[in-house]
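Ticket opened by: R.M.
Priority: normal
Category: complex prediction / small molecule

The reporter submitted a protein together with 5-amino-5-deoxy-1-O-phosphono-D-mannitol and asked that the result be attached to this ticket for the collaborator who will pick it up next week. Submitted input follows.
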Amino acid sequence: MCGIVGYTGGRKASEIIYEGLKRLEYRGYDSAGIATLSGGEIFVGKKQGRVGVLESLIGGLDGNTGVGHTRWATHGKPSDVNAHPHCAGKFAVVHNGIIENFAQLKERFFCGVEFSSQTDSEIIVRLLNEFYDGDLLSALKCVADVLQGSYALAVICADFNGLAVLKKNSPAIIGYGKDGNFVASDCPALAGECSEITILEDGDIAVVSQDCVRIYDGDLKPAERGRIKNLATPASLELGDCPHYMLKEIYEVPASVERTCAGYFTVEKKVSEVLRGIDRIIIVGCGTAYNSGLVAKRYIESFARMPAEAEIAGEFRYKNPVITPTTAVIAISQSGETADTVEAAKLALSLGAKVIAVTNAPYSALTRCADAVVPVGAGPEICVAATKSYTGQITALYLLAKTLAGVSAQASFEKLSVMPKLCIQTIENIDVSTLADMCARSDGAYFLGRDIDYAVALEGSLKLKEISYVPSEGYPAGELKHGTLALIDIRAVAVVIITDERLAGKCENAVEQVLSRKGKAVVITNVGGLEKTFEGRAEVIKIPKCDMYLSPLLSAIAVQLVAYRTALLLDRDPDKPRNLAKSVTVE
Ligand code: M6R
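Result attached by the on-call engineer:
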């Protein structure tokens, strides 16, 4: 989603905002822009492209107050004119979110007026200019009263040396710096600048100057929101010696598993309290988080023998879900801000379910609404493709399922404690170069597996298509012969994950079916003897042996590395895949 940053204080605003935007680029990289205020005049620099396009513009943007934006295009193509900030009269505005009634508002207030951009956001600045009669706060309130949808807005006004902020259904934080104050979408933008932040709530309006921050609720009554520590540090966001964040974050998988285990001890009691009397589980998430939910379904059904369903969060909301007072919903989200997941959790709460959030983001919208929070110890994940957060989620969900089965974290930890070492062995020892080369040359890659391996196959397929753009699908291995086999020919690659001895024979059949149709097959496995079975016919990538249920922690590393290497062979940027953004805060 888009990222916003604002600063007002004693230093050159454009330079500080530019640094903040670089740290928020994972939220979108279609265009970038900054507006500053100097001598009662607003100056704007904006351009299509990544945040780096601003480097040559910031010198010309004077002033100690300003707002900036990095865009993930929703309404209006990526272009210079659609880049934020948008300006009208005395105002410049940056926006993260979607104004759902922008067409109606345009018709009502600006009938016949030609707008400069094709964005939904321009209406905001036009309205501010329309409603402003010298009283900034009441103009902001009038705008908030007519907007529908989601927004985090940072505003500068030529009459006020400071920032105004409006927030509803999109994240916004205030940061307190040494020589000025900030607004941003997320903590990393303020790393190194602010050790303390305030998280705004829906409906809040904030007026921020160099020395003072005033926060009002939707009725313009002063609101106390409290300050918390900013956990993002410059060190946690640095690339170090790695060429890409994706690789760095795969290297951090072992630490993610370890920290998630440690974190679980602090919440075990609370989780078991919330789960008391529960007899049915629904797991919701999007993308990778949904895929980890599929693994969790297996865990819950196997360990606790309790019915569990995994649902795509955006679908769950609109299917009139069956919820009883003894249903618990587990909402999984790396960012804790994914609109579909947060709304699914809120719907579940409103229907009387208990909600447990599994997330990396301790202060996110998801954690604020949940009955209990299971922390994922992955730390900040910058690459758009989820890697260490997936394995952290799997770890957390394994422990959660054990709690549901009445097994203590201490007892579960015995099996988990060897996993960080096995993750390191996997990262260091496997060679995915042949498979990556096959994928890069293929017309399509098919990830196959059964049971838990099928859940990882879906994740492998998502990862490959997301960062290499090679068409890819994930299938249960047994389903191949029911349709997908028609796509297998000399230009197709099948990646078959086999970590379950019981099902190995059945999965071998799928490999044979691919080979007999002249497709290429690669097996990712820790089952013995398969190298011999497929010698000279199919590549076999060996991962370490481990507890059957924990194998996703290792097979996931293999498919993540395959996606990464394939992306490099095809000259894609693995950290910033086209058309995507890391945190999707709109529906
Ligand atoms: O922040 P979340 O975990 O809620 O994000 C959900 C998906 O948008 C995310 O997992 C997406 O699928 C990843 N880019 C996949 O690598």
